[in-house]
Amino acid sequence: MSKHIENKETVVSVKNVSKSFRLPTESSNSLRTTLVNRMKGIKGYKEQEVLKDISFEVKKGDFFGIVGRNGSGKSTLLKIISQIYVPQKGSVTINGRLVSFIELGVGFNPELTGKENVYLNGAMLGFSTQEIDEMYDDIVNFSELQEFMNQKLKNYSSGMQVRLAFAVAIQAKSDILVLDEILAVGDEAFQRKSREFFETIKQDQNKTVILVTHDMGAVQRYCNKVIYIKDGVLEKSENLQDITNQYSEDNLETYEDQMSNGKNKKIEKAKIWIEKQSNNVIADSNETFDFEVNYALYDDVLKSEENIYIAYALHDEKRGGITFDSGSIKVNGDGLKVSLPLKNFHNTDFRIIASLRKDPKIIDPNKPNATDMITFTKDGNDARFMLRDRDDKEDYALLRKL
């Protein structure tokens, strides 16, 4: 089996690709100033090296992921593969018909109807009128815009335009499909249809997809190979799980560094924060995520409160919503130690926030256990972690209550 995979045809070959851009550092409307700067060795611009000696191969039938933080160079790489940019060094070889959809709706004309835009966009992608005729019904059916195709595009909502553009991209009859950050378009029903399409296309050994995304869940769900570009360099091109874990952890560390450098200096009456005891990435759902919730009271009135409570909640950062809420827990000045079992959760990114609470001044008989909030964890004082259980095949955050 492995021998068969190794012998698959290479459809995209990237060899030692480098790319730089010139960024102006000053503007000069004076010829004299320009000449003086030249004589002093001041160029008026600086070279920004975006890609540095990138090499990899994409095989026929791959669902190939490219991940990296904003500014890492991954979109520039996609434009080089799509022959929008030319590399300064190295080469890219394409074997097959490539359709690139790097920006949704590029080439659409608001004064033309939806139908006219399909034919216009198809022509820009290199398809003949006959080829567009053959794929037109599939495009319209996927976009679910049958009633609007004869209306001008300027009368479409932004969501309708995105759906039409996305439908053109994925229904185009190509050997290689290049996509940049467009897996989360449209409403929930349309996203579900899009996910089903990608589940189908990843089984087609004649279709190759190259996907740039920040969504590690999408990478794990669809991709069979992935590379990680960091600061223009090919950081990793190995095990898919290891790469997604490394990428997520790098992002988390960057976020926490930014938050710790910009903490709120305002004088507060109270403060609450979370200290992690576990790793940023947990690879086994049989483990626990351990943390402490600590607090400090600076206001004399608050210090006299007899009953102080802590509540914490677990947020699903990818899908949204609260997957677990502890409710108010009474504490005695020592904070709260928590060992959160993860056996009921599936792979996603989590954020834990906590709030400091007290007894309400007015007790609501309909809510006898209610408490009033004093303060909550600000950015940088909360806790974030990723669950990346290798055995987890589900795509839902929580199946049952803790």
TrEMBL record:
Provide the ABC transporter domain boundaries. Answer: 31-256
Identify the Pfam families for this entry.
ABC_tran
GO terms under cellular component: membrane
What Gene3D superfamilies has UniProt attached to this entry? Answer: P-loop containing nucleotide triphosphate hydrolases
Q: Which SMART domains match?
A: AAA
Gene Ontology molecular function: ABC-type transporter activity; ATP binding; ATP hydrolysis activity
Could you list this entry's UniProt keywords, alphabetically sorted.
ATP-binding, Nucleotide-binding, Transport
Under PANTHER family, the record lists: TEICHOIC ACIDS EXPORT ATP-BINDING PROTEIN TAGH
Question: Which family does the similarity line name?
Answer: Belongs to the ABC transporter superfamily.
- What protein am I looking at? ATP-binding cassette domain-containing protein
Tell me the lineage of the source organism.
Bacteria, Bacillati, Bacillota, Bacilli, Lactobacillales
